[in-house]
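hi! just following up on the protien thing from before. the input was this:
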Amino acid sequence: MNSKNYDIAVQLRHEMHRHPELSNCEQNTLKLITNYIEKYTDFKAINTGTYLYVDYKVNDDKYIAFRCDIDALPMDEYIDVEYGSVNQGVCHKCGHDGHSSTMLAFMLEVSQQKPKQNILFIFQHAEETVDGAKVCVELFKKYNVDCIYGYHNMSGLAYKKIGIIYDIAHLGSYGMEIELIGKESHASEPEKGINPVFAFADIVANLSTLTKGALCSVVHLDVGQNAYGISAGKGYLRLTIRSDEDEILTAVKNNIVNYTKEQAQKYGLSANFTYSDYFPVTYNHKESVDKVIKAANNLHINVINLEKPHRASEDFGVYTQAIKGAMFYIGNGEDYPSIHTDEYDFRDENIAIGADMYMELLKSI
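and the predicted 3d structure came back as:
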């Protein structure tokens, strides 16, 4: 790609990293990206207040869509970089600053080369909480979108190589909160209360059976309070459930609910259930994967066919439930720090690879 375009994209990446915003709070990020688009291209950014997109239309044919994510994580800056986050407790530790800057680099190339395909550029909010894709997918009703592509940077994958997988790319998942309510008592008279900790212990001990066929992680257990004179009367167990089949996710939820209700009745407790962060299985369509591989081959970039879906969920699956598409990966290096860790930072060099891949994919429609 053009070196000046690359430099502009890196500049945006560093500004986004310096001023990160959490999911559903990306208003300043939207303004920043809009400023870059309208300063360096002849495109008009459509800022909806939660996400933004650009409609590049040259004819009455179908559109090809490209999506990036813009939200950051609730983490502190750890590494020493001159563009380090100035927002305490918020940092781009998943590389969404790099994904967005790649999209800008791609737009700069499109603005200058004027390809003859209709393109929808989507800068999506709230990927980390799966709120964003559920909103942005409505664009497909307004525009005649044929397919969609996106990429994620990947640690553990050889540097600057393209990773791709057919069919299931990311497991589906959801968060589950179990609230058990009993009765507090003086800690010297526990028999006069109803402590939910024993029911929680039974539930946790049986999770491997209840969640057979899925991956279950206990992410939080909170019972009672920090008061040694009070026997607990209420508590919460929070779980994340993952599977490569939506049917298994539903079956596991039912298993946990039914067993919890049995334990609640056994111990004289009431039980409540809430669910959050539902990510569908992300499915890569064969036709779209074939085009990703062809694009990489045309660019003489090595392609690594991944053998297993990623355990981490990705709300790109909302899009590929609606239309055909594919998520591919650009390698950070086999030993590079993983995303969502203190030591991680997006590798600027991958911006050029992502932009070149997007330009090449335009030829496939």
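The radius of gyration is 23 Å.
The first helix runs from residue 3 to 18.
cheers
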